[in-house]
Amino acid sequence: GRGEFAHYMLKEMYEQPEIVLKEGSRHLDIPEELTHALHITLIGCGSAFYAAWGGKYYLEHLAHRKATLELASEFHYRNPIVQEGVTIAVSQSGETADTLKAIQYMEQKGQYTIGMVNVPYSSIARQVNYEILTNAGPEIGVASTKAFTAQLLCLLKISISLMKDSARKEKILNGLKQLPLDMQKIFFKVSQLQDIAQHLVHAKGIIFLGRGISYPVALEGALKMSELSYIFGQGFAAGELKHGPLALIDATTPVIVLAPMDQFFEKTVSNIYEVCAREGKVFIVTDEAGASQLAGVPVQDIFVYPSPATWELHPFLSALSLQLIAYYTALHKGCSIDQPRNLAKSVTVE
Ligand code: M6R
């Protein structure tokens, strides 16, 4: 059951530090086919797709592998040209029909397939050549939270085990040890996230911005907001603002900006100014190092989480912050949190 928690989703969000603690240090076996793969295709739907997107950044930056991202619901209809390589299909339920179809397509084309699933013995687990369990435990809330985090962690661990730079590896692994505690600290500041949510309740739409790996996290935050609170949420790469979305900015559309202290920080800050100059109401989610550079920026609020050891760990902290903002926005609106309207936990039809 959900015990003392008002919703399964709340319980599942609170389980995340423990999952990172347990899974972060657990040895992960990977098949030889993956160790030698020069090209990895990542496939998924919804939140699993966004986790896979994060995995693409990890595989490119850490493991120096060519990583291609594919949306399962589009992929197999396209008659895509497939060359040698390994497919990693990411799915919490292991039952998503689109993802299963994409795996079957890849197998027909001769790819070695890996299923990264949370549910053992699921259809995807049985279909693939190799199964990697994300071990988040059963996820009941329709909105994926802890499964997303566990997927991202698994993809990070794969990338770490494929990487050559041992000093960098050490740094990330040490950072991972500190991460559960840093995630806990977000819960200590949950009242600030509740306040932010209170400001969002009456919005017609909310824009989420991020750069680099914060881009898929922004997309995930927008999906979470849409499915839970029924407020239209849209994520954009912050660098795309002036290519169109800037036209949306006015005093009525809140903008949530992920602005971690990473290589994109300065650029993201200039995007924040672009939005503020158009009377946009900005809410920043950043780490301590980022916040220290943001004094005087004319925004509505800044939510600050502890600075992680390396950029690879920001998504675990920023995604959790966005999950909580979506949760409290939905709560203020009185939405059906564990069972949002029109949605099912596993989507077994195409
Ligand atoms: O079970 P799966 O991971 O394959 O599910 C994929 C999506 O249907 C799922 O992530 C969906 O987008 C969630 N409702 C997101 O919260």
UniProtKB/TrEMBL annotation:
EC numbers, comma separated: 2.6.1.16
Domain SIS: 30-168, 196-340
Keywords attached to this entry: Aminotransferase, Glutamine amidotransferase, Repeat, Transferase
GO MF, any single term: carbohydrate derivative binding
Domain of life: Bacteria
Biological process terms in GO annotation: fructose 6-phosphate metabolic process; protein N-linked glycosylation; UDP-N-acetylglucosamine metabolic process
Catalytic activity: D-fructose 6-phosphate + L-glutamine = D-glucosamine 6-phosphate + L-glutamate
Entry protein name: Glutamine--fructose-6-phosphate aminotransferase [isomerizing]
Organism: Holospora obtusa F1
